[in-house]
């Protein structure tokens, strides 16, 4: 019985904290970001951008999960023009 070759595991994405938010990196590729708003009249405390989508909310954990979900969806979705 022959052994199957295993693919080397790619780098896992990580969260890196920044001055006014967090950035989601995979190696040197920026996948998404969560920005914290400091203005008192802001409607939402956090906004996020990833995979061609954007949103906002008042909870950092939910914003991070939204970024991770958008990145996962963009990775699985087929490109329309390629």
* SSE pattern: EEEEEH
Strand content: 25-35%
Instruction: Calculate Rg over CA atoms.
Output: 16 Å
Q: Return residue spans where pLDDT drops below 50 for at least 5 consecutive residues.
A: none
* Portion in helices: 10-25%
N→C terminal distance: 39 Å
Main sheet record: 5 strands, antiparallel
Q: Residue-averaged pLDDT, rounded? A: 86
Work out the helix count: 1
Structural class based on helices, strands and sheet pairing: alpha+beta
List keywords for this structure.
82 residues, alpha+beta, five-stranded antiparallel beta sheet, 21% helix, elongated
Describe this protein's structure.
With 82 residues, this protein is α+β, with helices and mostly antiparallel strands. The chain is built from one helix and five strands; from the N terminus they run E-E-E-E-E-H. It has one helix at residues 60-76; strands spanning 14-17, 21-26, 29-36, 46-50, 53-57. It has a five-stranded antiparallel β-sheet with strand order 1-2-3-4-5, with helices on one face.
